[in-house]
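Q: How would the structure tokens look for this protein?
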Amino acid sequence: MTVTVPASLKAPAGFTRTFRIIRVHNGEATVLAEGTGMSLEISSDKFSSYFLVYRDTKIEEATNTSADTSSNTQSTPAPAQTTVAEVPKTGEYMPIAALIMLILSMTGMVMVITGLKKKNHI
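A: Here is the predicted structure in token form.
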């Protein structure tokens, strides 16, 4: 499947924009595609959440200085290591056991009150 990046996400002048498509399935994030073009090709057989993310890198112009001729080597920065963090929990957490106990106790109280009313009317 080809995912077309919207034109509104085009990189601003002086920057290179790297796009990634990330799939989150069962709490595990996986990078499916990466590129600088305006379309990305992915393949997946899972019904999951998919995210289009990007990172901008400033384009640095090469400068030649004639004052320092003793060292013509430029250090190249190491590529950034990208790690996908654990997906944060965003919803409310309610223990299901406490909810079931609450429902059962309320049902029991309704049954006792209904039974007492019927006993007094007979």
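The CA atoms of residues 101 and 107 lie 10 Å apart.

The chain has one helix and five strands.

Upvote if useful.
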